[in-house]
Design goal:
Elements (H helix, E strand, L loop, with lengths): L2 H44 L7 E6 L5 H8 L12 H9 L4 E9 L3 E8 L2 E8 L4 E7 L4 E4 L10 E3 L17 H13 L1 H4 L2 E10 L2 E8 L5 E4 L5 H17 L5 E5 L6 E4 L3
Parallel strand pairs: 1-3, 7-8, 10-11
Antiparallel strand pairs: 2-3, 4-5, 5-6, 8-9, 9-10, 11-12
Length: 270
């Protein structure tokens, strides 16, 4: 094979490669065009027709279905693909009554809203400067009901609190988080003892510490505790109070102090 034949062969191979490359590029462009066309058809013709037609609300919150939809920001015109579940969930959880919201989309036209409401742990009296009114506080320290909207009244009163805000959704100071968790655990483990608590008073010692004064039902003697509450300690305190009452000396005792782990009696003056 002479030089001219070699050059002709290389030129022919180059042309073949270029033709193959051009065909491949045209194929890629055609595929991209088809994908783009399909995407446009889907978003402008198909997706808008996939409306949310079924909305199922599972809730233990005293709100009507329409109130739930209004809070969620749902107007009934949403389509399946444009609806953002996280936005709806955030809208619902912004309502003080809602502790947890879960949003579930079921193809092609169903939306499920699962709502879990707050459960009152305490009742407190909030001072407005012109008087006081009751508020319900849950186990996370959130004020979620007030006045006549409170549904559960047979709860301990918590006093000694200072509220920076009185609007629903306001929370108690962070230093009370562990105390709230202890009371929640005690209510679950010792429900009968929890029901014997009339009032718990918070006694601030510093910005980060406090003591507790507990006023049991059916007893005139209060119980002083360190900044935590335990079902076992409270059970022992109630046994001591019962003993004082049966011995007929409870009228002479002002309080019993359990802060050190040993019982200290404080007698009434005079």
């Amino acid at each position: 094979m002479d030089l001219s034949e070699i050059l002709t062969f290389k030129t022919s191979r180059r042309k073949d490669a270029e033709q193959l490359l051009n065909k491949l590029l045209r194929l890629i462009i055609a595929l991209l065009f088809l994908i783009l066309a399909a995407d446009l058809i889907f978003h402008y013709l198909i997706a808008p027709k996939l409306r949310i037609r079924n909305i199922i609300v599972n809730s233990d919150i005293p709100l009507s279905r329409q109130e739930v939809l209004t809070i969620a920001g749902i107007d009934g015109k949403e389509d399946y693909f444009s609806l953002k579940g996280d936005v709806i969930g955030n809208n619902l959880e912004a309502c003080p009554l809602v502790r947890e919201a879960r949003v579930e989309k079921v193809f092609p036209d169903t939306l499920r809203l699962h709502l879990r409401g707050r459960k009152a742990l305490f009742i407190s009296l909030a001072d407005t400067g012109q008087g006081s009114f009751p508020v319900a506080i849950d186990e996370e320290g959130v004020i979620f009901q007030s006045g006549s909207s409170i549904k559960e009244w047979d709860l301990p009163l918590i006093s000694g609190l200072k509220f920076n805000e009185l609007e629903p959704g306001a929370t108690l100071p962070k230093m009370l988080d562990s105390f709230l968790a202890e009371v929640t655990q005690m209510r679950a483990a010792y429900p009968d003892i929890f029901r014997l608590i009339s009032e718990i008073q918070i006694i601030p010692l510093s910005p980060a510490s406090f003591e507790l004064l507990l006023y049991p039902l059916s007893f005139t003697v209060r119980v002083r505790l360190a900044g935590s509450i335990d079902g076992t300690v409270l059970k022992n305190a109630l046994l001591v109070l019962d003993l004082l009452q049966r011995e007929g000396i409870s009228e002479k005792v002002k309080e019993i102090d359990f802060r050190t782990g040993e019982v200290v009696y404080r007698i009434k003056e005079g």
